[in-house]
Amino acid sequence: MADTSNTDPDQSPAPQTDAVKEDKPMEIHKPKPVHNWREFLSEIAVVVIGVLIALSLEQAVEDWRQHQQYLANREGVRSELSYVISNLMRRKEMAPCIERRLNEVSIILDSAEAHQPFTPPNWIGSPNSFVIRTSTESDLSRSDLFPAAEQEILGPMYSWLESVKQFQDEERLAWSHLQPMESRAILSPEMIADMRAAVGEARMENDRLRFTLNWLHLFAVRYGLSETATNEWISLRPKVWPICMPMTTPREEGQRMMFDYQETYK
């Protein structure tokens, strides 16, 4: 007997849906052909506008970054200048003592030159010099950050600070020529001449420093820089400025008091 199980006309193979799905080709949208110049220019415009938007956004981000860097550097410059100016303004505290000491020395020289007796000074002292260190001048000179107008305003400040350093060095040298007067009851004509020249040099440097500090004060007021900024270093000051100690102060006592500092920082 023949097997007819596989020849039933009513039976049909099950549909292979998964295979059909897997074999379905990917749809690819082909670019439409450009039929005229208007469509061509429209396509070009879309591309150009997209590129311009991307470049504009990139430039905006770069401009914002540079502006933030400018603000940070500008604050650094102003803060540093404020601290330096505040430190230098402490010289005003001993300014009257400088004038008084130079007058006292001149009186002694007059007496010595006239062969009149005088009381030998135990202590001459000298004006304190203030350390000036700056690190932001190179930032200010960057033309890509600071506008030319602002460079012209802040730039001279660093030149004035260099002048102050020079004047302080020359002042220290002048006062060093007055130190030999301590404990001397007799001064030779050569010593008198040298000391008179030193007094003149000390007066000139004092005038230069006073003039320059006045300019720094006016600058600080005009451009809103603090003259009272303080930190743990600026706040350290001697209880008595050495130049303000009486000439009768024993030298040992004067040297000890030179380093007797008090802390005023809060």
The ordered H/E elements are HHHHHHEHE
What's the total count of β strands?
Answer: 2
Low-confidence stretches: 1-7
Shape: rod-shaped
How would you portray this structure in words?
With 266 residues, the protein is mostly helical. It has one domain. Helix content is 57%, strand content 2%. The chain is built from 7 helices and 2 strands; from the N terminus they run ααααααβαβ. Strands 1-2 form a two-stranded antiparallel sheet. α5 runs antiparallel to α6. The chain is rod-shaped, with a radius of gyration of 42 Å. The termini are far apart. 17% of the residues are buried.
Tags for this model:
7 helices; 266 residues; 57% helix; 2% strand; mainly alpha; disordered N terminus; rod-shaped; 2 strands; two-stranded antiparallel sheet
Give a short summary of the structure.
By secondary structure, the chain is mainly alpha-helical.
Please describe the topology of this protein.
Blueprint: H1 17-22, H2 37-88, H3 95-113, H4 137-140, H5 148-176, H6 189-222, E1 236-238, H7 251-258, E2 261-263
Antiparallel strand pairs: 1-2
